[in-house]
Write the structure tokens for this entry.
Amino acid sequence: PKKRIINCRSEEVERKKLFSESFLHYPCLVPADGFYEWKEKEPYYFFLKGRKLFFLFSFLLNKESVIVLTIEANELLMPIHHRMPVIGDWKKGEKWLSPGLSMEERKRLCQIFPPEKMEYYPVHPKVNSTQHDGPELIQPFLAKKVKQKFLF
């Protein structure tokens, strides 16, 4: 089976033949209230302050594939992961969906989201398995640290 494409670096989309036309002509928005990133195998849940809805800036590659754009991580995400999705509110999203934008106009909308408008916390490692689903997967999780007993 072929590897499924799920994201693309926004700063490289113009140079990728597979993506450039779709990026320009088939923009879409994926509504979200949060997203996960991992540091090693530890999952973290990122969301906007006030739990506001936001949008992942994306485009349709074909009838079955949505490509989410990524950008360099902001200061909040950087300790966890070096990339993050391109996100924005509805006002910016409306601009994203505007027909007839040039490649440069569309690329200018791909900006790093302000870190002061976001929050995050660790979540349960069950997130790592597709067998688990439910609201508990976005609840804060504090792993119990095992205290080492004296060796001698």
